[in-house]
């Protein structure tokens, strides 16, 4: 195991982080955040080296983009082969087989017995926007109900759907109308499944009649909101409400999809099937692609020309995504996700036994997090200690990210391809960082 000192390479670097950071600050708007003052030189699997030659273990995974790791050779080879043929035609002008094949694969993987169809786009926000378009076209209704703490993107519509003000919505209004928010179930913080369902029913009384609602949109596990999983009884109740009023259920799996939770879609673990599913991030293994998959009759609602995009489902990204699916099969990454999640949670619980300030350790598959409360009080979010732990980890060679409505949750999105040795090394750094931050 390398120590922080051993992680440095002594030969002089041609460039350094501080110089690049100064150039960045002069050239980029301040609204583009950066959680770590690090500039990457190269990366492999779950490790990144910066321009100064320092090695970092990557527990962020590009925010859930790198389930198959950095620069996986199978994916790199597929991309290189595609680029040598052609890099772009615009699928709506001249089509290519990889788009069709990938759609067939995702249709087969999607939960539920009904026939499916898939649309490809470029970003997660685009997928969410198009899922809303499809839902409105199918139901002929305008209303969308999202949930507090949810994150759905940074475009104007997806900001409206997002249930977290800072930093995503400050100064950017007004937002589109007919968007409403119900409570997300969070038993850990006193919001039961029934409380959340009752908040949905309250919207029908006070804000919008059920007959004007096109869809519910929900993350199976809230990402930016703190890695809280929606209880099965809540999902069953929500689907019952949806079916009673002709409302569609959209599972936003931009962060949970592509095997992160131990199944290809987290909603496979639901007791009911969603009508539409959005995916992005790790679907492309580092290349930009997103998807909306749903019941065929629903997906066919928009008229020809109503869906698409210039770069949507690019040949390079579809080749990468097909390679991602191949890697998942060859390396049994769904099983690995479950085993890795158990390993990470067990390690974090051992740390929590020594530090009562860690008030919860949770996860679904390898989507794992721990939460901090002042003095061990779960109702007193400790964002400051959370920031110190993330900063300490960086100095020790580990990339971590925080999340949560109160900024007091540390999430782990390490590549599923990480070795046990590197995962354990990362856990050791977390233990040392927590101890240092609380000293």
CATH architecture assignment of the largest domain? 3-Layer(aba) Sandwich
As a whole number of angstroms, the C-alpha radius of gyration is 22 Å
- Give the overall shape, derived from the CA principal axes: globular
The SS-based structural class is: alpha/beta
Number of DSSP helices?
13
The order of strands across the largest sheet is 4-10-9-8-7-5-6
Name the CATH homologous superfamily of the largest domain: Type I PLP-dependent aspartate aminotransferase-like (Major domain)
Helix content range: 25-40%
> How much is the average pLDDT?
95
The CATH class label of the largest domain is Alpha Beta
Element pattern in H and E: HEEEHHHEHEHEHEHEEEHHHEEHEEEH
> What ranges have pLDDT less than 50 throughout 5 or more consecutive residues?
1-12
E-strand count: 15
Distance between the termini: 24 Å
Q: Please state roughly what percent of the residues sit in beta strands, choosing from under 5%, 5-15%, 15-25%, 25-35%, 35-45% or over 45%.
A: 15-25%
> What is CATH's topology name of the largest domain?
Aspartate Aminotransferase, domain 2
Largest sheet: 7 strands, mixed
Overall structural domain count: 2
């Amino acid at each position: 195991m390398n120590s922080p000192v051993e992680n440095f390479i002594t030969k002089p670097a041609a460039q350094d982080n501080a110089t690049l950071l100064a150039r960045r600050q002069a050239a980029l708007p301040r609204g583009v955040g950066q959680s770590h003052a690090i500039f990457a030189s190269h990366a492999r699997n779950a490790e990144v080296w910066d321009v100064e030659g320092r090695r970092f273990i990557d527990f962020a995974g590009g925010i859930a983009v790198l389930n198959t790791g950095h620069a996986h050779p199978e994916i790199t080879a597929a991309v290189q082969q595609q680029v040598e043929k052609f890099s772009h035609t615009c699928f709506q002008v001249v089509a290519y087989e990889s788009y069709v094949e990938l759609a067939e694969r995702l249709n087969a993987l999607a939960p539920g017995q009904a026939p499916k169809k898939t649309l490809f786009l470029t970003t997660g926000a685009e997928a969410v926007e198009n899922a809303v378009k499809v839902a409105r076209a199918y139901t002929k209704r305008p209303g969308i109900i999202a949930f507090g703490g949810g994150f759905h993107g940074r475009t104007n519509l997806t900001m409206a759907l997002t249930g977290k003000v800072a930093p995503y919505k400050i100064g950017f209004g007004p937002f589109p109308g007919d968007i409403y928010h119900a409570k997300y179930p969070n038993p850990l913080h006193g919001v039961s499944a029934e409380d959340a369902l009752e908040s949905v029913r309250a919207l029908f009384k006070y804000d919008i009649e059920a007959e004007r609602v096109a869809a519910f949109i929900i993350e199976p596990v809230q990402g930016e909101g703190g890695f809280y999983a929606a209880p099965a009884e809540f999902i069953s109740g929500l689907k019952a409400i949806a079916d009673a009023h002709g409302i569609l259920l959209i599972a936003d799996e931009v962060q949970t999809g592509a095997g992160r939770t131990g199944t290809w879609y987290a909603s496979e673990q639901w007791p009911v099937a969603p009508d539409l599913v959005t995916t992005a991030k790790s679907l492309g293994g580092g290349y930009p692609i997103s998807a909306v998959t749903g019941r065929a009759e629903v997906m066919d609602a928009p008229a020809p020309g109503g869906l698409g995009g210039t770069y949507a489902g690019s040949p390079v990204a579809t080749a990468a995504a097909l390679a991602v699916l191949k890697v998942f099969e060859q390396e049994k990454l769904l099983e690995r996700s479950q085993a890795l999640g158990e390993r990470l949670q067990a390690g974090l619980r051992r740390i929590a036994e020594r530090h009562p300030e860690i008030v919860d350790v949770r996860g679904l598959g390898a989507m794992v997090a721990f939460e901090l409360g002042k003095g061990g009080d779960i109702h007193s979010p400790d964002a400051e200690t959370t920031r110190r732990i993330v900063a300490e980890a960086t100095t020790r060679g580990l990339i971590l990210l925080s999340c949560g409505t109160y900024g007091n949750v540390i999430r782990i999105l390490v590549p599923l391809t990480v070795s046990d040795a590197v995962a354990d090394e990362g856990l050791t750094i977390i233990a040392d960082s927590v101890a240092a931050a609380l000293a």
